[in-house]
Write a structure and sequence with these properties.
With 294 residues, the protein is α/β, with parallel strands linked by helices. α2 links the parallel β2 and β3. The longest helix is centred in the middle third of the chain and has 30 residues. The chain is globular and about 55 Å long. 43% of the residues are buried. Pfam families: adh_short (PF00106). InterPro entries: NAD(P)-bd_dom_sf, Sc_DH/Rdtase_CS, SDR_fam. Keywords: Oxidoreductase. This is Short-chain dehydrogenase.
C-alpha cells in the first residue's frame, strides 16, 4: 500500500468552509497552532467568522475572513475570485469542506425549497463547487496538498428522520472517494480524505441519542480524528468503531434482518426521535458576493 509522505501545516494556506463555529472553528485554530501561514475562513455569519479570525491572528497566523453563501454557485464563484484577485490565494494547500446543515423529521415534513434544496446545496453541491474552484490550481502547483471532505456515518446507513441529510452525505462520500481515485490515477500529489463520524455534540444534533455503545463524540475528539486522517492522506475515516461494525453488518445481513438489529439492538432507528437541533438563531442575510476582511 502506498504511504503518503509526511505533511504538516507549517507555512501553508488552509481554507475552511463553515469556519465560524463548531468544528470549523476548531480546524481553524488547530491550523494556526500548527504553524499555518494563512487561514481562510468562509462562513455566512460574518460576526462569527470575524471572531474566529481574531483568535487565529492571536495565534500568529494571517486570517482572511470571507462572507459567502455556500447555497449558491454565484456566491462561491465570486468569493473565490475575490480571494485570488485581492488576497493572492489561488491554490490553498489544504481545503476543508466542513459546512453543513440538517433538518430532522420525516421526509414529508421537509419543505422542498427551505429544507431539501438547501441541505443538498450546502452539504452536497457546495463541496463540489468549492473544490472545483481551487483544484485545477492545486494540481497545477505540483505541491503536496490535502482535501478533507466532512461527510457522516449517516451517509453509510439509512436512518429515519434524517432522509435528506443522509442523502446529502451519501452523495459526498461517493463524490469524494471517486475524486480521490481520479487524483491518484493522475499521479497528482493532492490527496483526498473523507471523514464519516457518528453524532458529534456540537449542538447541530442536539436531542439525539447515540446508538448502542456509540456515545456522542466531543468536537475535540472528532476534529483530532479528522485532522490526523487528513495529514496522513487516509482515504476514508469512519468513526467510532461501532459505525464500522454497523456498516459491515448492513452489508451482509438481509435488509429485514438488519432492520431488526438496527432498530431493536443498536437502536439506530430511534436515535433521531427526540432531535431538536440548534436553537433558532438570528437570521443571517446572504452576503454581497466576495466580501472579505483580513
Amino acid at each position: 500500500m502506498k504511504t503518503a509522505p509526511p505533511f504538516t501545516l507549517k507555512g501553508k494556506t488552509i481554507l475552511i468552509t463553515g469556519a465560524g463555529m463548531g468544528m470549523g472553528r476548531l480546524y481553524a485554530l488547530r491550523a494556526a497552532r500548527e504553524g499555518a501561514s494563512t487561514v481562510v475562513l468562509w462562513d455566512l455569519n460574518q460576526k462569527a467568522a470575524d471572531d474566529v479570525g481574531a483568535q487565529v491572528r492571536a495565534l500568529g497566523a494571517r486570517a482572511v475572513v470571507q462572507t459567502v453563501d455556500l447555497a449558491t454557485l454565484d456566491s462561491i464563484t465570486a468569493t473565490a475570485q475575490t480571494l485570488r484577485e485581492e488576497h493572492g490565494i489561488d491554490a490553498p494547500d489544504v481545503l476543508v469542506n466542513n459546512a453543513g446543515i440538517v433538518k430532522g423529521g420525516p421526509f414529508w415534513e421537509h419543505d422542498s425549497e427551505r429544507h431539501t434544496q438547501a441541505i443538498m446545496a450546502i452539504n452536497a453541491m457546495a463541496p463540489m463547487f468549492v473544490t472545483a474552484e481551487f483544484l485545477p490550481a492545486m494540481m497545477k502547483s505540483g505541491r503536496a496538498a490535502r482535501i478533507l471532505n466532512i461527510a457522516s456515518a449517516a451517509g453509510t446507513l439509512a436512518n429515519p428522520n434524517m432522509s435528506v441529510y443522509a442523502a446529502s452525505k451519501w452523495a459526498v462520500i461517493g463524490w469524494s472517494d471517486s475524486l480521490r481515485l481520479e487524483l491518484e490515477r493522475s499521479g497528482s500529489p493532492v490527496l483526498v480524505s473523507t471523514f464519516c463520524p457518528s453524532y458529534i455534540s456540537t449542538g447541530m444534533f442536539a436531542g439525539v441519542k447515540g446508538p448502542l455503545l456509540t456515545p456522542l463524540m466531543t468536537p475535540d475528539v472528532a476534529v483530532d480524528r479528522a485532522w490526523r486522517a487528513m495529514l496522513n492522506g487516509t482515504p476514508l475515516k469512519l468513526t467510532p468503531w461501532t459505525a464500522k461494525l454497523a456498516m459491515g453488518l448492513r452489508g451482509v445481513l438481509p435488509t429485514r434482518v438488519w432492520d431488526v438489529v438496527a432498530g431493536n439492538v443498536f437502536k439506530v432507528y430511534n436515535s433521531m426521535d427526540h432531535f431538536t437541533g440548534r436553537p433558532a438563531a438570528q437570521v443571517v442575510a446572504p452576503p454581497q458576493a466576495g466580501s472579505a476582511k483580513e
